Amino acid sequence: MDTIRGYRNAMGGASDAPLDGESLLFGPGGALDSIGLVSVVVELEQVLAERSGGPVSLMNDRALSRSSSPFRTVGSLAEYAMEQLSAHD
Amino acid sequence: MTDSPPRVALVTGSRKGIGRRVAEHFLEAGYAVVGCSREASDWSHERYEHFTADVSQEDAVVTMLDAVRRRHGGLAVLVNNAGTAAMNHLLLTPGETLDRLLRTNLLGTMLVSREAAKVMTRGRWGRIVSFTTVAVPLQLEGEAAYVASKAGVEAFTRVLAREVAPMGITVNAVGLPPIETDLLRGVPREKRDALIGRLALRRMGTFDDVTNIVDFLIRPESSAVTGQIIYLGGP
Predict the structure, then answer these.
(1) Separation of alpha carbons B118 and B171, rounded Å
(2) Which among B219, B229, B166, B215 has a CA at the least distance from the CA of B21?
(3) Whole-prediction pTM value?
(4) Is residue B72 part of a domain?
(5) Which residues contact A77 (CB under 8 A, 6 or more apart)?
(6) pLDDT at A16
(7) Interface of B with A (CB under 8 A)
(8) Best interface-test mutation with B: which of A46, A48, A56, A84 has the largest number of B CBs within 10 A?
(9) N- to C-terminal Cα separation, chain B
(10) CA distance to partner chain B, nearest, from residue A55 (Å)
(11) Is some CB atom of chain B closer than 8 A to the CB atom of A33?
(12) Which of B29, B33, B102, B188 is deepest in the core (most CB within 10 A)?
């Protein structure tokens, strides 16, 4: 959530919609525009890389083919990010 | 967000030829330079770090750019120089050669650009320059696979420029004429002369021609120049 807030602040508060685990990341009523989603995923990868000590990729065929997209809500992305971080431990 | 990214440049294929000259040019300009090639480097500099990495191998590219981010905290410039060529009639070109050309020239450019742009995105500033060839607009016979791979680089350049423009990153390509490198040494003299004869400028290109256009494209003042393919020599 900090990463998303950071991006929105950097963009001059492009959206001030409330943010919680159920917030949609993208699309109508979403927290981010398309470039915002890209920027947040890239930033998140780098934050996770710093924590894990090695490169972390959030975009892979397994993630993209899940029946429930990890990129749907703030909560699902956070959960998925933690999964990827654990996989590197 | 930063107005002055770390003066760090990544040059692929920097062990020899044009890549080495571009890397040395950046070193003279005060940059920290990261380079890579499939083989170990036989030259060194206090601000130069070499990775033995094949640009067509995703893991190697991801690891290299992760190291750049950790060590330097950002990246200002990427020059996609690593490339390979094969001059042969398509009907006589083995599948392995086609695969190698496309993997190194096109896939390699795509992988390194993707990972470099991720590092650049954090600083919201970046310059990506890839090398293509005058053989693309000249539709040079005998180089179908090489030309196809570089035409792919050109299309990739134009689309990537649009995708990363919001992140403050420009993406351009420079179409090189024949330049005295190992890549050209295998081309028969008459073929080389015939190619030069089809250019507006009837001479070989030089390393200075290359660094001059790279310098122009990476200047802060060139922030509006993106998605362009600039050919040297006037094909």
Answers:
(1) 14
(2) B215
(3) 0.93
(4) yes
(5) A25, A44, A70, A71
(6) 63
(7) 1, 62-63, 65-66, 69, 118-119, 121-122, 124, 166-167
(8) A46
(9) 40
(10) 6
(11) no
(12) B33
Q: How far is B85 from chain A (nearest CA, A)?
A: 31
Whichever domain contains A36, its CATH number is 1.10.1200
The number of distinct structural domains making up chain A is 1
Residue B1 located in a structural domain: no
**What token pair was written down for A3?**
């990463």
ipTM of the complex: 0.84
B152 falls within a domain? yes
In a domain? residue B175: yes
Domain ranges, residue A72 = 2-88
For residues B99 and B95, what is the distance between their CA atoms, to the nearest angstrom?
6
Q: In the prediction, which pLDDT does B1 show?
A: 43
Contact predicate B83/B102, CB 8 Å:
no
> Using CA atoms, how far apart are residues B65 and B177, in angstroms rounded to an integer?
30
- Nearest alpha-carbon partner for B78 in B63, B60, B64: B64
What 8-state DSSP symbol labels residue B221?
A: G
Question: What distance in Å separates residue A75's CA from the closest CA in chain B?
Answer: 23
| pLDDT of A12 over the 70 cut | no
Q: pLDDT of chain B along its 235 residues, tens only? A: 445 578 999 999 999 999 999 999 999 999 999 999 999 999 999 999 999 999 999 999 999 999 999 999 999 999 999 999 988 899 999 999 999 999 999 999 999 999 999 999 999 999 999 999 999 999 999 999 999 999 999 999 999 999 999 999 999 999 999 998 877 777 788 888 888 999 999 999 999 999 999 999 999 999 999 999 999 999 9
Q: Which domain holds residue B45?
A: 8-231
If we measure between CA atoms, which residue out of B222, B228, B215 comes closest to residue B9?
Answer: B215
- Let me know how many helices (H) and strands (E) chain B has, helices first: 9, 7
**Residues of chain B by 3-state class (helix, strand, coil), percent to 5:** 50, 15, 35
A-chain residues within 8 Å CB-CB of B125? none
Whichever domain contains B160, its CATH number is 3.40.50.720
